[in-house]
Every structure is written in structure tokens, then in C-alpha cells.
Amino acid sequence: MSAIRYSIAPSPLGDLILSGAEHLSGVAFTDSRKATRVDADCRRDDGAFAEAASQLRAYFAGELTRFELELDLQGTDFQRRVWAALLQIPYGKTTTYGQLASELGDPKAMRAVGLANGRNPISIIVPCHRVIGSNGSLTGYGGGLPRKQWLLAHERGEVPLAW
Predict the structure, then answer these.
(1) How does DSSP classify residue 122?
(2) Are 77 and 84 in contact, with CB atoms under 8 Å apart?
(3) Within its chain, how far is the Cα of 95 from the centroid?
(4) Which of the following is catalytic: 18, 52, 124, 128?
(5) Which of 78, 101, 114, 122 is the most buried (most CB within 10 A)?
(6) pLDDT tens across 80-123, in order?
(7) How many CB atoms lie within 10 A of CB 145?
(8) 128 is a catalytic site residue
(9) Are 127 and 89 in contact (CB under 8 A)?
């Protein structure tokens, strides 16, 4: 098994830690509870995930609306199905937990979809921020609701692009 590598990428919302072995398996804000814990098994490699960092810069600059990266999504079969559905939500659009559950074939699985969404290991690139409550409210986001609000506003073109 390959050692976990990580690098740090700046963003207008705070630094992001990009991590994985062969392919990207984690993106989280460095100050979030989801950030990869750096320990003896992790090796900082500032050249690792250069393409992901480049695409994130383009996203934040308003030049990229769909990421094209090889991802290593590690989770249960159900979680991976939810995360695959997240990847289909168009840039600048939102959906609800109930809509996602229906798309996955089980309209009653809203809560399970919410839990899987909350365990998304690759923030921003797998756009869990595009899922909102059925009443249009912003609900849970591992990076904090102000960041979720910013990301959605950014995708609607309501945020200045200079950073």
C-alpha cells in the first residue's frame, strides 16, 4: 500500500489539504474536522496533486465549472453511489437530500443520503455544497455554513473573483 501524500492548496476560503496515495482521496479545509490528520504515515509532497490544485485555482477564478480528475473515493457502496450522484449536480445548481434519494431509487433514504453527503471526503470537487434542505435552507457543511454560502454564491456569479 502506498503512503498517504498531502499538499496544501490556498483558496479564498482558507487553505485546503489535498491528500491520497496514488489518486486524490481527500480535500478538506485545513481547519475542519475532516482534514487529513498528518502523522508518521503521511508525507508532505508539495508536487502531489498539482493538477487538482491547478483545477481548484481555476474553479475559484471562475474559469472552471467541472473538475476532470482521477479520484479515489473510499467509502461504502451506498456512499460512493451518493457521491457519484453529487458529481452529476450541475455547476451553479442545487438539489435536495430528498431529490437525491429519489434519483438513487429510494425516496425514503433522505437521511441516509444526508449522512453520506456529510461523509464526502473530497470537498468542493465532489460538490456536496450543492445539496440544500427541502425548504431551500442551507444545511450542514463540513467546512462551515459560511463557506457553503460563499461557494453557492460564487457559482451563481455573485462573488468577486479576485483573491
Answers:
(1) B
(2) no
(3) 15
(4) 128
(5) 122
(6) 999 999 999 999 999 999 999 999 999 999 999 999 999 999 99
(7) 13
(8) yes
(9) yes
C-alpha cell at 131: 445539496
- Contact predicate 6/43, CB 8 Å: yes
Where do runs of H (alpha helix) occur along 66-109? 77-86, 97-103
Radius of gyration of the chain (CA): 15
Cell of 44: 508532505
Grid cell at residue 138: 442551507
State how far the Cα of 151 lies from the Cα of 92, in Å rounded to an integer: 9
The three-point CA angle 110-114-117 to 5° equals 135
CB atoms within 10 A of CB 134: 11
Tell me how far apart the alpha carbons of residues 95 and 34 are, in angstroms, rounded to a whole number. Answer: 23
Distance CA 25, CA 85 (A): 17
| Residue carrying C-alpha cell 431551500 | 136
pLDDT score at 124: 97
